[in-house]
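A brief tutorial aside. Many learners find it easier to grasp structure tokens once they have seen a single protein encoded end to end. The record that follows does exactly this for DUF7053 domain-containing protein. Read the sequence first, then the structure, and try to relate runs of similar tokens to stretches of the chain.
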Amino acid sequence: MSTTNVATPLPAGLSQTTVIAALHNHDLMIRTLCPALISYEFESGDMSTQAMYIVTDKKPIGQTTYKLTLTNVPDGVDSLVNAKPPVGVLTISGKWRVRNGQLVEDVEIDGNFMMKKMAKGNVEKTHPEQHTRLLEQMKA
């Protein structure tokens, strides 16, 4: 299992309560997490607590479809991606939390060696941008 951490300071004037409410907005989270989103659909669960979605977006390796589960927790949201790319199974588990004036994301990646390495590089490159985009949505 490979792990990584991304932390972004909250902009001045943006309360932790506002950020947590945004994290609990699944539509906003999906649109933020998937900048090349093609489509998504609700599959099961309850959008106010835990829900599973089927997401299709464009990745560097082409179009991909995967299951995304978002679980609201008191101080943030847990995300779970279950993907089946051509080269194996990939699971990316994220814990998005608001604490100490920061948006903090702890990510665990599981899959074969090549998938973990590629996914970790992608997370480290794109997730700081996702944090910034999410926080900007709340300031607008």
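Self-check: The chain has one domain: 2-139. If you spotted this yourself, you are ready for the next section.
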